[in-house]
Amino acid sequence: MLYVYSKKSLMFKKVTKKVLWTVFATITILVTSVVTMAYTVAVDTTREEVISNLSVEEKLVLLNEVNHPFSEESLITLLKELNVKFPHIVLAQSIVETGHWTSNIFKENHNLFGMKQARVRVNTARGTQYNHAYYDSWRESVYDYAFYQCRYLASIKTEEQYFQYLADSYAEAGDYINTLKQVIETDSLIKKFE
């Protein structure tokens, strides 16, 4: 079952098959246009040679990273666009899980949240590497986290409930919640979403 959060009604609603097919068609069109663009991008012969040796998937990743390079600001913007619950907590998770976006799990797997590959719910992971999910781009990691929230955290209403869920079902470190709270306070993350 897939749900989408309605900003208007402030509730999660089931996604209909018609909407799913529309999203699928839109994604198909976007992927087709991105692949076409990947084949036409070339600045000089060296770059053309490198690009010509890439697989279609590698070209999509390259194009996505060029068009959507990672920055804290772009992450904040995407969290707002997706209307993620408690985005300051989610931002803190990305900071803690990646060591301020320096870990190999982030750099190589594009994994912002230390997510494992989901087996039951809808997800955007391409597979598992280093015992964590890997994605085509950092944005795919954020989409996957949003799917995770929709699936498991839809009924949570307060920050404390959110922290409790993370402590019970997400965190591997015993001091994870205290670490998140410290990062939120130290880095003034709540203000970044005002």
The helix/strand order is: EEHHHHHHEEHHH
Summarize the main sheet: 2 strands, antiparallel
Q: How many DSSP-defined strands?
A: 4
CATH topology of the largest domain: Lysozyme
CATH arch. level architecture of the largest domain: Orthogonal Bundle
Which spans of ≥5 residues are poorly predicted at pLDDT below 50? none
Strand order of the largest sheet: 1-2
Which band does the percent of strand residues land in? 5-15%
Whole-Å distance between the termini? 32 Å
CATH class of the largest domain: Mainly Alpha
The whole-angstrom Rg is 18 Å
- Globular, elongated, flat, extended or rod-shaped: what is the shape? globular
What portion of residues is helical? 55-70%
- Category from helices, strands and their pairing: mainly alpha
Total of helices: 9
The overall pLDDT average reads 83
Total tally of structural domains: 2
Record keyword descriptors for this entry.
194 residues, mainly alpha, Lysozyme, two-stranded antiparallel ribbon, two-stranded antiparallel sheet, 9 helices, 4 strands
Characterise the protein shown here.
- By secondary structure, this protein is mainly α.
- It folds into two domains: 1-67, no CATH class; 70-194, Lysozyme (Orthogonal Bundle), CATH 1.10.530.
- The chain has nine helices and four strands; from the N terminus they run ββααααααββααα.
- It has helices spanning 17-40, 45-52, 56-67, 72-81, 87-98, 104-109, 138-152, 159-169, 176-186, and strands spanning 3-6, 11-14, 127-129, 132-134.
- β3 and β4 form a beta hairpin.
- α1 (17-40) crosses α3 (56-67) and α5 (87-98) crosses α9 (176-186).
